[in-house]
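Figure 6 in text form: structure in, sequence out.
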């Protein structure tokens, strides 16, 4: 993970607001259905563990994330005690174990800013799949015609935090067409004290043909390409790039 992104996830003062980001997660229902009869799941870049904990009731689930602050939150959520939480880097971790399914959701793939790092992550996926095991991940489509940038005034919102009360939150982002990289800043103001917690990050938008080549090189076979988590097929203007596939059968 790039250094600029670390504070957004590793600083407990900022991580405590992560689950209040105000966006729905359609990947949860999709992945829960996809897991079906799977007996084991690896969630790479699990963050605060929302998906991993959801899947843990009827199967073995391992959640991996490099941010201890995120894993601390994950352990406290319902079903958190049923998941094996491991602090580790998706580029390099090797668990000496294989799984029926490997997930990489929440646009975690995009925090890796170079093709070298993206290849390493996909190789980790391949290394942990059982023969014929399934994988799925998401990445925003650089060719989506909608705006990628946002301003403070556009994103300003309020929510209630169980510890700090009313919070005002906003994010600001700028897209660099040359590098296909979005730089953004998330900010949270605790209203009763006017204390503001801010962190910056960068993510990379990678074209579908590049993702397809990386998957092929790693021995992974894509069965379907989706354009969002509702399951609609991918087309060139889709908002998301979501490959669903399998590892090679031996």
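Output sequence:
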């Amino acid at each position: 993970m790039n250094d600029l992104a670390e504070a957004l996830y590793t600083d407990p003062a900022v991580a405590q607001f992560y689950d209040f980001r105000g966006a729905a997660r359609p990947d949860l229902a999709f992945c829960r259905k996809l897991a079906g009869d799977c007996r084991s799941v690896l969630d790479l870049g699990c963050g605060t563990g929302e998906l991993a904990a959801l899947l843990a009731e009827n199967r073995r689930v391992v959640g991996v994330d490099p941010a201890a602050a995120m894993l601390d939150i994950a352990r406290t959520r319902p079903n958190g005690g049923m998941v094996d939480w491991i602090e580790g880097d998706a580029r390099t971790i090797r668990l000496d174990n294989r799984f029926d399914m490997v997930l990489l959701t929440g646009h975690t793939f995009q925090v890796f800013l170079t093709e070298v790092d993206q290849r390493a992550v996909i190789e980790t996926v391949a290394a942990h799949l059982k023969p014929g095991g399934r994988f799925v991940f998401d990445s925003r489509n650089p060719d989506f015609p909608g705006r990628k940038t946002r301003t403070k005034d556009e994103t300003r919102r309020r929510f209630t935090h169980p510890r700090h009360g009313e919070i005002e939150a906003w994010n600001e982002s700028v897209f660099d067409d040359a590098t296909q990289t979005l730089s953004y800043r998330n900010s949270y103001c605790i209203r009763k004290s006017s204390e503001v917690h801010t962190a910056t990050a960068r993510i990379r938008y990678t074209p579908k043909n590049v993702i397809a080549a990386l998957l092929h090189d790693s021995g992974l076979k894509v069965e379907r390409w989706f354009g969002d988590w509702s399951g609609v097929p991918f087309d060139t203007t889709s908002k998301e790039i979501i490959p669903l596939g399998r590892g090679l059968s031996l």
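Caption detail: The first helix runs from residue 3 to 10.
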